[in-house]
Recover the amino acids of this structure.
């Protein structure tokens, strides 16, 4: 072959100028990381020379430059310039030698896969793409389930045209890239049958706080475009990297089942892909098993180590073979550019009632008026400086997102288009609310808060906000080591950069109240509960857990693990539950197990509960969660504190009950 087509396995990351960042990275992984178990689907790339050959054969250089020039001088709108250029390319003819090489390579790829006309993914890869200071996220098109020579050549031509979408033109202009010096390479890659499996996106860093010790994975059923576009609310998994080296451990510190209301599957003919509703079973179950989550996280850590920087990756699971593949990898661009010494804290006062909530993107608090836009066709109605409310965004929305004070969407996860672009623009966003376009309306005053942890909250009215900024690099060393008091696992990663000696107090009851909500004894004795309403709500919360007690152990261990991870390997002192009887009675099902006390402050609380027949079985669940946290997940930095211990005899009773449940003082380093 001449210089128009190259196989992935001959490329490396030094070939960006020839085949773009995306394709160079695929070649790098096949060549350097296959030996480490990382699977990448085989394929080939067209080169920059192929692109320029197409442009020159159709005499398009001067015509494209002329349209860009007219737009730059303000003579025509961007939309007109972009449309004209795209039509020029779509009407162009393939140079015979370029088309012949693409068709020949496709035939070879089909033969290797044992298919007559292999189904392939056709991905755009610009030569000014995936650079550390420019992400070009979602700028050019990808076409999935393309089969046959004619369909492949059409998809390739459409990739070329996508180099001149309005968003791509404006982004290059903003980043000072010469439009006539950026070429487009096309990656043609064997399709992974994720239409019958699942797919998603992962980062080797926490996308909101820059915490560099976790892998964040989003997953949904079907092809991955819905996750990337933010059209579904995906599963979210978080894995703690420092403990991945020990295969006996399972350091999955977050596992949230998303709604996943639809999935993209293979179509036929003119419609190669289509969306269909997911089943109730699919919505209620997570896409990946624990072993698959851990395997993907290890791949992410390996890829990050190889590239020497945090990475943004796309993965796909073949539903027929069960195998998982990495289909893209690029440097993460937002946290990499962030000034790590800057530390801002926000205090919100006089906030109104909660209107809706979702996943927080960024860590700012913004007040303002809303502008609700339901369709991309109405983008021109957006009022600059207002809070954009919409169902979901795609790259066509970027010009509006740049002018928004904040963004709220119905759909999407942390790796959706809305989240990625908001992060890059430094705009606070709350994604995946599920109902923002139903409960909010235009010209409404509200406050968007992304400063309270993983969850973002939308409050009625404009709250008072105090912002403090600290340069951590200027903090003096203290003679006495300082430890944090933390309770909220969702906000734990915000504090990871602070120079502290660990966590001095983590309150277990905060996790029980917010992440579990059920009295542990109501889970132990679920079948005998008299309160039918509480029983129904508990059944709903614990759906997916065959044993109701496992719900408590699992949720408590994962909640506490985020706190332990934030300071690992420094100590995290976890206080066992210290609810008062009236507080315990307020948990679901709790009223049936709690005595009425005149003064709960000095009554049946702390150590006295743990060995009492009234709560001993509940305390056993707390102990099992701590044992799992230390022994199965690997957080040996967790230290246990027993509250409200009135006597030496009481201490001995508690230690005996703990030992019965696998927590023996001194054993396995337990303090």
């Amino acid at each position: 072959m001449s210089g128009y087509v190259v196989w992935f396995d001959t490329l490396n990351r030094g070939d960006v100028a020839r085949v773009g960042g995306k394709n160079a990275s695929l070649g790098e992984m096949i060549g350097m990381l296959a030996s480490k178990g990382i699977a990448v689907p085989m394929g080939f790339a067209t080169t920059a020379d192929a692109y320029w050959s197409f442009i020159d054969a159709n005499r398009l250089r001067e015509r494209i430059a002329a349209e860009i020039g007219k737009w730059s001088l303000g003579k025509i709108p961007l939309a007109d310039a972009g449309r004209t250029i795209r039509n020029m390319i779509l009407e162009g003819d393939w140079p015979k030698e370029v088309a012949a090489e693409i068709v020949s390579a496709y035939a070879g790829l089909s033969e290797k896969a044992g298919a007559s006309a292999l189904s392939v993914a056709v991905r755009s890869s610009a030569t000014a793409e995936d650079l550390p200071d420019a992400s070009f996220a979602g700028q050019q098109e990808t076409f999935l389930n393309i089969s046959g020579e004619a369909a492949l050549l059409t998809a390739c031509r459409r990739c070329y045209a996508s180099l001149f979408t309005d968003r791509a033109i404006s982004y290059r202009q903003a980043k000072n890239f010469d439009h006539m010096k950026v070429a487009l390479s096309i990656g043609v890659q064997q399709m992974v049958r994720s239409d019958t499996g699942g797919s998603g996106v992962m980062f080797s860093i926490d996308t909101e706080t820059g915490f560099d010790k976790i892998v964040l994975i989003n997953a949904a059923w079907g092809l991955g475009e819905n996750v990337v576009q933010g059209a579904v609310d995906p599963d979210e998994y978080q894995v703690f990297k420092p403990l991945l080296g020990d295969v006996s451990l399972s350091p999955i510190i977050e596992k949230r089942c998303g709604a996943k209301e639809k999935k993209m599957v293979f179509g036929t003919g003119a419609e190669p892909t289509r969306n269909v509703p997911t089943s109730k079973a699919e919505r209620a179950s997570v896409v990946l098993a624990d072993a698959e989550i851990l395997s993907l996280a290890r791949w992410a850590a390996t890829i990050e180590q190889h590239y020497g920087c945090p990475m943004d990756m796309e993965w796909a699971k073949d539903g027929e073979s069960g195998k998982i593949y990495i289909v893209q990898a690029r440097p993460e661009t937002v946290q990499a550019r962030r000034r790590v010494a800057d530390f801002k804290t926000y205090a919100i006062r006089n906030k109104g009632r909660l209107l809706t909530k979702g996943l927080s993107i960024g860590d700012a608090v913004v007040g303002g008026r809303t502008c609700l836009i339901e369709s991309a066709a109405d983008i021109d109605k957006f009022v600059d400086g207002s809070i954009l409310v919409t169902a979901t965004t795609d790259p066509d929305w970027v010009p509006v997102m740049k002018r928004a004070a904040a963004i709220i969407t119905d759909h999407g996860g942390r790796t959706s288009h809305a989240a990625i672009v908001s992060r890059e623009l430094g705009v606070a966003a709350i994604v995946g609310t599920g109902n923002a376009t139903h409960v909010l309306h235009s010209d409404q005053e509200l406050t968007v808060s992304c400063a309270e942890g993983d969850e973002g909250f939308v409050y009625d009215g404009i709250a008072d906000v105090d912002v403090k900024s600290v340069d951590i690099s200027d903090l003096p060393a203290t003679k006495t080591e300082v430890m944090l008091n933390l309770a909220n696992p969702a906000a734990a990663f915000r504090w990871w950069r602070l120079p502290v000696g660990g966590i001095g107090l983590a309150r277990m009851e905060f996790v029980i109240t917010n992440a579990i909500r059920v009295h542990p004894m109501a889970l132990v004795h679920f079948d005998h509960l008299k309160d039918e309403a509480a029983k129904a709500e508990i059944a709903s919360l614990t759906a997916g857990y065959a044993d109701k007690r496992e719900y408590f152990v699992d949720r408590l261990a994962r909640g506490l693990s985020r706190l332990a991870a934030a300071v690992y390997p420094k100590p995290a002192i976890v206080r066992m539950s210290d609810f008062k009887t009236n507080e315990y009675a307020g948990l679901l099902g709790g009223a049936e197990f709690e005595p009425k006390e005149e003064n709960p402050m000095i009554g049946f609380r702390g150590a006295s509960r743990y060995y009492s027949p009234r709560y001993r079985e509940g305390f056993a669940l707390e102990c099992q969660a701590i044992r799992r946290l230390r022994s199965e997940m690997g957080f040996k930095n967790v230290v246990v504190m027993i509250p409200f211990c009135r006597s030496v005899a009481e201490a001995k009773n508690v230690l005996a009950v703990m030992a019965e449940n696998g927590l023996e003082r001194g054993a396995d380093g337990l303090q």
